[in-house]
């Protein structure tokens, strides 16, 4: 029989990325957390954590984390039918891409969180790599651009994020793109890229037939990304719904005729209970443009 206090310790260590912070979250000492992990490894006969060079679950640890995520959600369903088992609010850990978080996500889930009494723990990952968090057992669900579900999970398409055209200020466009979209221009015009895994800029360049190197600023913030574009620092792929006003008043303009449409998919475990199913139902109402 599994000791779920041990699994809770493992999940908290991974989520907080450290033993000390995990102890603070659970209200116990760092040594107590370490002892729980050690006990779990002795009972399992396998290590559950890789400690160097970075803290991460082993394959065995990943399976335990996935199981624990599902059990937490199923217990939530049980408490709804047996109120005497009531406990503090459920915390739901989800991997989500930054642009969705900066645009439509909050309005879509706000009333659901209130109705369900759920606290969200949102892990921001690029839409191309967020599914790895779910595969590792770190999150219970994932919103990303990958259509292929992992084993034991299901995937539902939500629509497409329209990144319109690469955008910049009129001054920036005049400075760099006056000759048009040529290889020489693309090789020297500074772009803005969200992070090392962000492939939107590369897709745009590929559409233009350019596959060489290009200068770019790294900005791991959707809001900061827009501010850099508005300041004339660079050009980049920005969701249309995030900058409608700036497009209408001319603060931002297109630098090339190459719109991108990125599909978004919602991934959940097959046996994740009614809570995630109700969230899935709510997400089906999203209209992405």
Which labels suit this protein?
289 residues, alpha/beta, D-Maltodextrin-Binding Protein, domain 2, two-stranded antiparallel ribbon, 13 helices, 11 strands
List the helices and strands and how they pair.
Blueprint (H helix, E strand, L loop, with lengths): L3 H13 L2 H8 L3 H15 L4 E2 L5 E2 L1 H23 L8 E7 L1 H5 L2 H12 L1 E7 L6 H5 L5 E4 L8 E10 L4 E2 L1 H7 L6 H4 L4 E3 L6 H8 L8 E3 L3 H9 L13 H5 L4 E2 L6 E9 L3 H11 L6
Parallel strand pairs: 3-4, 3-5, 8-9
Antiparallel strand pairs: 1-2, 5-11, 6-11, 7-10
Summarize the structure.
The chain has 289 residues and is an alpha/beta fold. It has helices spanning 4-16, 19-26, 30-44, 59-81, 98-102, 105-116, 131-135, 170-176, 183-186, 200-207, 222-230, 244-248, 273-283; strands at 49-50, 56-57, 90-96, 118-124, 141-144, 153-162, 167-168, 191-193, 216-218, 253-254, 261-269.
């Amino acid at each position: 029989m599994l000791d779920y206090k041990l699994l809770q310790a493992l999940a908290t260590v991974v989520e907080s990325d450290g033993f000390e912070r995990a102890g603070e979250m659970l209200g116990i000492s760092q040594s107590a957390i370490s002892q729980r992990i050690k006990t779990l490894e002795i009972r399992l006969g396998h290590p559950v954590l890789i400690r160097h060079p970075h803290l991460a679950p082993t394959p065995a640890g990943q399976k335990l984390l996935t199981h624990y995520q599902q059990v937490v959600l199923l217990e939530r369903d049980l408490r709804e039918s047996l109120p005497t088992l009531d406990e503090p609010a459920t915390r739901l850990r989800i991997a989500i891409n930054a642009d969705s978080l900066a645009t439509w996500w909050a309005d879509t889930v706000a009333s659901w969180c209130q109705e369900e009494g759920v606290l969200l723990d949102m892990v921001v990952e690029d839409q191309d790599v967020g599914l790895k968090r779910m595969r590792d057992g770190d999150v219970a669900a994932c919103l990303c651009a990958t259509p292929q579900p992992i084993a034991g999970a299901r995937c539902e398409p939500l629509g497409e994020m329209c990144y319109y055209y690469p955008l910049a200020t009129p001054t920036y466009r005049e400075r760099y793109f006056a000759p048009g979209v040529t290889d020489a221009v693309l090789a020297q015009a500074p772009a803005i890229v969200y992070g090392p895994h962000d492939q939107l800029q590369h897709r745009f360049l590929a559409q233009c037939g350019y596959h060489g190197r290009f200068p770019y600023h790294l900005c791991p913030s959707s809001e900061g990304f827009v501010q850099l574009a508005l300041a004339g620092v660079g050009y980049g792929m920005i969701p249309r719904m995030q900058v409608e006003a700036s497009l209408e008043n001319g603060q931002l303009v297109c630098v090339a005729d190459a719109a991108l449409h990125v599909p978004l998919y919602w991934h959940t475990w097959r046996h994740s209970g009614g809570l995630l199913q109700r969230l899935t139902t709510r997400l089906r109402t999203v209209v992405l443009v």
